[in-house]
TrEMBL record:
InterPro entries: WH_DNA-bd_sf (IPR036390). The lineage of its organism: Bacteria, Pseudomonadati, Bacteroidota, Flavobacteriia, Flavobacteriales. This is ASCH domain-containing protein.
Amino acid sequence: MLFKGVHLQGIKSGEITLAFRKWQKVSVKTGSLLHTSVGLLEIGKIEAVSENDISDKEAVQAGFTEKKQLLKSFTHNSTGTIFKISVRYHAEDPRIKLREQTGLSEQQFEELKGRLERLDLYSKQGHWTEKILLTIKDNPNLHAIGIAKLTGFEKEWLKLNIRKLKNLGLTISHNVGYRLSPLGEHFIEELKGEQ
């Protein structure tokens, strides 16, 4: 579930408490947490509504000036059910604190190494984690297409799997491209020291 930057800021400040989406089926669950650029958002009550059920007040609570503007936001998706979703800011993204770490105990290093080995083991692509981390290290801010060309991995697969590295605190996504986090840099140095 994606939000525009202006809506994310509104949710963080508490001004926006609702979201409306037109979907074939619900893609979020009540109580789930979404990782966003402003931190974690919590999904509250989800209910199917008709256009007539939506008030101007609710449109404003969703970050629009009026109901008409909200309804226009559905034009790209003419079929499906409209869902009214309660949203609230939950907390800072824990990955930010994680990725800023630069000191790893031997146990933390081994645990992280083990998690990457499992990602490699269960991937049809074979050993990819170190290759991707080293490519990002050597080419900071390179976009997914560029990394795909350098590594031979398919772009969409790559983006999905770089997200797994980000969830471990090893990479940082920018508007264009990726770079290693301080934790990622430290981890690669430790890994080189072992080889």
